[in-house]
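== Folding the chain ==

***
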Amino acid sequence: MSKKLLTIALIGGGVIAGYSFYAKMKKTQAELVVVPDASIHAVNWDGIIIRIDLLLKNPTKGSFFIKYPFVKLTYKGNTVGSSEAKDTDIKMPAFGQAKVEKLLVSIPILSIFSVSSSILKAIRNKEKVMITATMMTTIDLGLATIPFEENHDVILKSKK
């Protein structure tokens, strides 16, 4: 009888601990704040190179790691380019932030003519260009990893 009670207590404790950990993961995922900044890095015969800088904020008391972010750019619903994928970890300190600078996204000249020639026209006319930056990464909480994806509409800034 005592073995059954001990087994039930251990299983119950494991279920409660597992649920608590799962709830903490979901809360941490929801509280990762991403602030993107996009600017025109270069315009040349090969196409347009857009620079993305990301400010990642962790407003929680737990520290964790994230994988180097992957960024995909869309313009008027069409994918126009993406950054490189890297297998690098970034430490997110408790109540802190990390900055990922100079993610370069190349929009090839063929893409400009077939998908979004209006980007180049707007840049030349010094008009605002609104693009959607989708940031994808994985949050590593130690015992588990969870995917994180977030969309941001950003206005391209002129070359600095």
